[in-house]
Amino acid sequence: MSLVLGAIADDFTGATDLANNLVRAGMRTLQVIGIPGPDLALENIDAVVVAFKSRSCPVRESVDSSLAALAWLQARGARQIYFKYCSTFDSTDAGNIGPVSDALLERLEAKQTVMVPAFPANNRTVYQGHLFVGDRLLNDSGMEHHPLNPMRDADLVRTLSRQTDHDVGLLARSDLAAGVKASSDRLEALAAQGVRHVICDTLDETDLATLAAVVVELPLVTGGSGLGQALPAEYRRLGWLDTVDQAGRLEPASGGALVLSGSCSQATLLQIKHFLNRYEGFALDPLKLAKDDTQIGQALNFARQRMGGKAPVLIYASATPDMVRQAQDQLGVAVAGERVERALAVIASELVAEGAGRLLIAGGETSGAVVSALGICELRIGDQIDPGVPWTQTRLNGRQAPLSLALKSGNFGGVDFFSRAFEVLL
To answer: Does 248 map to a domain?
Structure first.
């Protein structure tokens, strides 16, 4: 069978999040970093997720890379295109969700798409067009403090309307409760009114299943990873997808266990606190990193002395909002982030070259920096650790054993994630 789904993701952890749900639903999935060469083999692959580090880059750059990925996926016969962004709708008023969605729609010559950021399994839901994280509105969830994309408006119709010149509408929970036909009729009525982007209420898995049935034949769907767990059943109903066993099988893992964290989300800060109650960790300081590479050398020595032990080694630059603001005030937002990303990328490269074989990376920007530094181009998706976070594997030149990686969005994972993740890896 030809490629069923081609996805374009705006960060590396978000790509892995979607790929995880596709694998769990029985799709053999490959994640690629950037646009692959023309000779990439796709035998026995049902879905390809093209990952970029484009969530916070200039709009034009994000649009251009997304359109290039679309062309690559279309050339390989992808039946449906999926634009993947964060389940907390991370974007500024300038973009990038609206402009990228508009560009993809125009290139596909499609009139309408849906916006389904919800991921109920990870407590991201949408009601009356408002995004909730657990029982808190998005703007009161901690995301209002995000260092790059602070989310201060939970009304997604209003938020997206600031990013596009086209009309934005709502597919309400009452429409979904009325079933597939009623929801389809509502989308058609909105399209007749010229509504190009439709925010979709989503409270639970039943809503996702209804949405999947409604949108399965749209040229383009957009959202978080939740919709990805529901679409494969519809692909099978249409005869597009075969049933396979163990879509997420990986090779046995080996090598030292390393956690690198640059995320400053509340979830990651709690995970670090839990880890440090049991084990040691090395904290990086952006202000010191801006002066010279002394701290990088200290972190490497810290890891080398402990890499042979049973516990994973933690090196982190995660900090509270006040500490982040202090660094940003002195260095500037861009420079502060770049210093941390560079340091963690250098540390990862050195330690992988010395035998680290199991890496857990926390934070989308951090994951992008580390994966790029390691020269990783492809990731085979394995089994889930927590909702939205699977183990993946790749092979590097000069390395006999596979390298296992978990790329964790800052907001994902239980409080004990940093230690438990390695316990579930075979």
So the answer is: no
3-state secondary structure of 202: strand
Same domain, 274 and 387: yes
Tell me how many domains the chain contains. Answer: 2
Q: Are 121 and 226 in contact (CB under 8 A)?
A: yes
Residues 217 and 266 in one domain: no
Q: How far is CA 324 from CA 151, 255, 273, 370, in A?
A: 16, 33, 17, 20
Using pLDDT thresholds of 50, 70 and 90, give the confidence band for residue 424: confident
Cis peptide before 20 (omega within 30 of 0): no
Residue 25 CA, distance from chain mean position: 17
Convert the pLDDT of each residue in 119-135 to its tens digit: 999 899 999 999 999 99
Burial class of 289 by CB neighbour count within 10 A (0 to 12, 13 to 18, 19+): buried
Whether the pLDDT of residue 207 is over 70: the answer is yes
Say what angle helices 180-192 and 205-215 make with each other, to 10 degrees: 60
Give me 277's structure tokens.
């109650």
Evaluate whether residue 390 is within a structural domain. yes
Q: What is the pTM of this model?
A: 0.80
Q: Which tens digit of pLDDT belongs to each residue from 364-420?
A: 889 989 999 999 989 988 888 998 888 999 988 878 889 999 999 888 899 999 989
Strands (E), 291-377: 313-316, 356-362
Question: CA 415, 418, 419, 420 torsion: positive or negative?
Answer: positive
> How does pLDDT run across 276-327, given as a tens digit for each residue?
999 999 999 999 999 999 999 999 999 999 998 888 999 999 888 888 888 8
Report yes or no on 242 lying in a domain.
Answer: no
Evaluate whether 321 touches 145 at the Cβ level (below 8 Å): yes
Kindly state whether residues 222 and 264 are assigned to the same domain: no
**SS3 letters for 361-423?**
EECHHHHHHHHHHHCCCEEEEEEEEECCEEEEEECCCCCCCCEEEEEECCCCCCCCHHHHHHH
